[in-house]
Amino acid sequence: SLVISHIGVMGLSQGGWISHIVGDLYPTLDFIVDVVSSATTPYEQVRHEVKSDIRRSGVPESLAKGLAVVFTRRVIGKHPGWWKMNGSFDPLPLIVNSSTPLFKIFGADDERDNVPVELSMERLESLPRFGNEGFTVKVYENSGHAMIDAQTGWIRGDFLDDVSSWIQTAVKG
């Protein structure tokens, strides 16, 4: 018969936010792996994503910020109920108040796309937990939101190896 001795959660993208909610509800989890989710609120994340889309379309930086405000309002206006309930969610208090081992992962190139990696890192580095055992943050260079290896077109092998090794270490500790 199957015996399960360790249980954890892994959240990808917005699921990374959910992984912290689950960790708060079930503090006896053995680990949390949060892959490519912003360490900001959904409002901050979508504003970053919209601004990135505008800049990629060729709009100069000086105009992109103002246009991002307008177009972010349009995005939010499509689902106002969801945004009213969730837009201000901040994962940092859940991270601060958790003692569950956490592996937080970013793709560096996501800064130019979905996730404000630099702002997320600033926020994480300000936490008392940052750098402590059981709190690991890694930014993968040359990867975006999908953690794809540009040469193989498949998920990065080093990312998969790191997650596997980290979980094994987390559950032994």
Give a nutshell description of this structure.
By secondary structure, the protein is of the alpha/beta class.
Rg (C-alpha, Å): 17 Å
**What series of H and E elements makes up the topology?**
EHEHHHHEHEEEH
Strand content: 15-25%
Mean pLDDT: 95
Strand arrangement in the largest pleated sheet: 1-2-3-4
Count of DSSP H/I helices:
7
Let me know the largest β-sheet: 4 strands, parallel
Structural class: alpha/beta
Low-confidence stretches: none
How many strands? Answer: 6
Provide the descriptors you would attach to this structure in a database record.
47% helix; alpha/beta; four-stranded parallel sheet; 7 helices; 6 strands; two-stranded antiparallel sheet; 173 residues
Helix and strand arrangement:
Blueprint: E1 8-12, H1 14-25, E2 31-35, H2 42-56, H3 61-78, H4 80-86, H5 92-96, E3 102-107, H6 117-125, E4 135-140, E5 148-149, E6 154-155, H7 157-172
Parallel strand pairs: 1-2, 2-3, 3-4
Antiparallel strand pairs: 5-6
Helix pairs in contact: 2-3
Structural overview:
The chain is built from 7 helices and 6 strands. The strands form 2 sheets. It has a 4-stranded parallel sheet with strand order 1-2-3-4, sandwiched between helices. Strands 5-6 form a two-stranded antiparallel ribbon. The chain starts with 7 loop residues before the first strand and ends with a helix. It is globular and about 55 Å long. The mean pLDDT is 95. The chain has 173 residues and is of the alpha/beta class. The chain has helices at 14-25, 42-56, 61-78, 80-86, 92-96, 117-125, 157-172, and strands at 8-12, 31-35, 102-107, 135-140, 148-149, 154-155.
